What we know:
Chain A is mostly helical. Helices cover about 80% and strands about 0% of the residues of chain A. Chain A is built from 7 helices and no strands. Chain B has helices at about 10-20, 30-40, 70-90; strands at about 10, 45-50, 65. The model of chain B has no long low-confidence stretch (mean pLDDT about 85). A 3-stranded antiparallel sheet of chain B has the order 1-3-2.
Amino acid sequence: MNRSRPVRIYQALLVFYPRRFRREYGEDMVLLFAEQLRDESAWRVCSRATTDFALTVPTRHLEVIMKKSTSPFLSTFFGAVAVAGAMFAVVSGTSAALAIVGAVTAVLAGGLSLLSYRRNRPLVRSSTEGGWWKPLAAGGGLLTALIVTVNLTGEVSEDLWLPMVITGLTAALLIALGLILGVSHLATHGSRRADAG
Amino acid sequence: MLALLDGEMHGYGLMQRVGELSDGSVKMGPGTLYGTLNRLCDDGMIEETTDRAERPEGERRRYYALTTGGRETAVSELARLQALVHRVAFHLPGAPA
């Protein structure tokens, strides 16, 4: 199909719209623009399309940002990998190589967890972030209780092994969650201060 | 949405209908029109009806119509606006008692 120059220019400008919107409605928008050009003066249609373009491109991008997924799956997954890596580094015994692998995994996964948490953070801040110290305190308390129990009872019997591992893992997860929320809270607090300054 | 009360329409028809209903004061651009259609589709107020009827050969335009919920919303919004205008007009100076 032969298209006039204004239509081709308009079609090229559609690249500034978000990809999903462009794929869904791009062809229709070009068709609509061509139909307008057929029925009205080119100057009027082009000036209206320019204003419309300038206003709607940022609006459509803002809508995409506002609809951004807030699923905590990725940050939780990487958080769990970080905790597993840290625990692996601790229990790897005398092997320095294994300890380093565990520590590196923990640091990388922790960073990815924090990054995905920040990327998926909703625009409207939830109240849970302000209470970041709660899971940290709960995890610390649980871990302390576990250590005290192990020290008091001496050797751990086989029956208690699984519950203790589960308790330890829960404590580690709570601590990791508290750390992620705390770091994120501090980072946001810092950026808000910078904005205010 | 009020422009779709007459039945299904394609984008350009809808744009012209909006112009008619507003006596030419509202002229939507493609970005505004399809952004609005996108939001209304997401909210379940309208739906695409292109495949529901035979179209002229080579027709590439997509058609949209109000859903049942969308029609109810449009009608109730129309009634609300009518009541509001009526109430305000009634209280204006010089209005019939």
